Automatic annotation (TrEMBL):
Sorted UniProt keywords: Membrane, Transmembrane, Transmembrane helix
DUF6089 domain residues: 18-215
Stretches assigned to coiled coil: none
Pfam families: DUF6089 (PF19573)
Membrane among keywords: yes
Protein's recorded name: Outer membrane beta-barrel protein
Source organism of this protein record: Chitinophaga rhizophila
Length: 303
């Protein structure tokens, strides 16, 4: 190996500084060949909250679709951004708990999410052809809970203030924001189908900061106050136990003010899981050898 200190003594200072700058700039180019990826997601969406007796009720699985772009920084680190649309739902009527059956609430909601984050790959995909990975980031999403009436018509729940949101009698209960941040995270596996085609399967959880994905969180408010402030429809959809007409549950009346309607101990969650397919491009010449070393001519030229 050449003696750098001796070499420095025989090279003019200006030239030496230029050499150092070029080496530092060329290092990342000679080490890696970065790739872009563009692709789609097709899978399912689920929800966890006050209308699920279990952590997740798979009977209310709905579809989810999405688009994404990614940037491979090196063999093990990938930046990602994406848009996903899905639907979530839940209903008391399919639970077995007596309290939930008597409450008889239901909801459905679209969820549109934009998210950015990182993926950490455990193996070199080009070498092993497969790698597990974990991912995390930040998301911004919108939702809008609705339900169906006895005739199948859609009823928007948020304007009804079913738990007294925005009513002067309950000043601490503000209308919930239908656009919020979430924390997406999860794990998956990628498979290299071809040099420029990557397939995968991913499970993604979304931690939210709201308990109103399903329009249920706290206690019932006074029936008469709700009737005066929001009308008959608000009373009808704050408590639907009087619609139950079966042998397992008797007909019920509207609960007194302060009776438990939901629980704000835990926030609601939503999940996107499914398959991904990505086309990767860029990264220099010479085919799609993902981390092929670049030629020296690809380094910046200054003189």
């Amino acid at each position: 190996m050449p003696n750098l200190s001796l070499l420095k003594n025989h090279v003019p200072g200006a030239v030496w500084k230029s050499v150092v700058v070029i080496v530092l700039l060329c290092a990342p180019f000679t080490a890696f060949s970065q790739y872009w990826q563009a692709g789609g997601f097709l899978g399912i969406s689920n929800y966890s909250g006050d209308l699920t007796q279990k952590r997740v009720d798979m009977r209310y699985t709905r579809y989810a679709v999405g688009l994404h772009v990614k940037r491979d920084i090196n063999r093990y680190l990938t930046l990602r951004a994406g848009l996903t649309y899905g639907r979530i739902a839940g209903a008391d009527s399919t639970n077995t708990d007596t309290f939930l059956l008597r409450r008889n609430l239901s909801f459905r909601s679209p969820v549109f999410e934009a998210q950015v984050g990182v993926e950490i790959n455990f193996l070199d995909l080009d070498e092993k052809k497969i790698t597990p990975y974990i991912h995390g980031g930040v998301g911004f999403y919108s939702f809008y809970p609705t339900t169906k009436d006895a005739n199948g018509n859609t009823v928007k729940l948020r304007p009804l203030s079913t738990e007294g949101q925005g009513m002067s009698q309950y000043p601490t209960r503000k209308p919930y924001n239908i656009r919020q941040f979430s924390i997406p995270f999860g794990a998956g596996v990628k498979v290299l189908l071809r040099d420029n085609l990557v397939a995968g399967f991913e499970i993604g959880l979304r931690k939210t900061f709201t308990d109103y994905l399903d329009d249920v969180s706290l206690t019932y408010v006074d029936r008469n106050s709700l009737l005066r402030s929001r009308g008959r429809q608000a009373v009808d959809y704050a408590f639907r136990g009087d619609e139950v007409n079966g042998t397992h549950v008797s007909r019920s009346t509207y609960p007194p003010d302060g009776t438990t309607r939901g629980s704000d101990k835990y926030k609601d969650w939503y999940m996107f899981s499914g398959f991904t397919l990505s086309y990767r491009f860029g990264g220099g010449s010479g085919g799609y050898n993902h981390w092929k070393r670049q030629k020296a001519s690809q380094c910046p030229r200054f003189f």
